[in-house]
Amino acid sequence: MSxxxxxxxxxxxxxxxxxxxxxxxxxxxxxxxxxxxxxxEGMAGIPTHPDIGTLLQFSEPxxxxxxxxxxxxxxxxxxxxxxxxxxxxxxLVLAPLHENARATLHLRVGQRxxxxxxxxxxxxxxxxxxxxxxxxxxxxxRARVTRKRTAPPAQELEISPSRxxxxxxxxxxxxxxxxxxxxxxxxxxxxxxxxxxxGEESCAGWRLFPQxxxxxxxxxxxxxxxxVENATKVPRTLPADGWLVRVGDQVYSPxxxxxxxxxxxxxxxxxxxxLVGDGQGRRNHLSPDNIxxxxxxxxxxxxxxxxx
Length: 308
Description:
The chain has helices spanning about 160-175, 180-185; strands at about 1-5, 10, 35, 45-50, 55, 60-65, 70, 80-85, 90-95, 100-110, 110-120, 130-135, 190-195, 200-205, 205-215, 220-230, 235, 245, 250, 255-260, 260-265, 270-275, 295.
């Protein structure tokens, strides 16, 4: 079972949590309903799945679209994505035609050109509907991943579980993209900085391989993606508590930890750690380019169960 630790609370079944930015009308069986800002700048990533028709709805009629790999009739024309659109409509429906589909879609909506990066994702991660909001004052923008070329506001946002989970979701999103695609998405939001990490640590029977660090300047948060390998000869469950992150002489206790599931001998799983502030109410000012050393405080770790 997956889990997520937020502060001192551990939530089982982390994959079943409400997605940040999900509208009240979301159907968990179909995927999240997401609200994104329709500012015509940057590039938005849209996770899709062959079993879900993703609906994109805009504030104005769609004048035209451009892109390679799209077909409006898969029976007569090959393509990576099925796309259904009628000129003058404010919405379109699309779905990937195979599991490895990726494409860039350019939409002309009013006087704006909106660019979307479409890719396939696991079924529970795919988006069911995306509402693009033209004027943020009309409705609070609660996008899972907001991409905006303007500088982050000078006043820090109040840190909430949904905003922290938004940073985590952004990290998951970029981890599934190529280096160039991830750099493009992060560059579209000046509050974000991304770094690829190297190195290896060993502790308590685990081998730890840091992969990515994503910083959100507005929230003063750094989220780390770490690949964890079971270095023992028995299946083990990744613990939710006891993780520490060292940067130079400073030691940080992650405010948010996400992972879970039993890991077989020599098997691997993913662990996400989010560092918020310095733990004493001050900013941490951590750059994602730092060397992050992850460790686990666990004495005499007990295996989950012996192999048969």
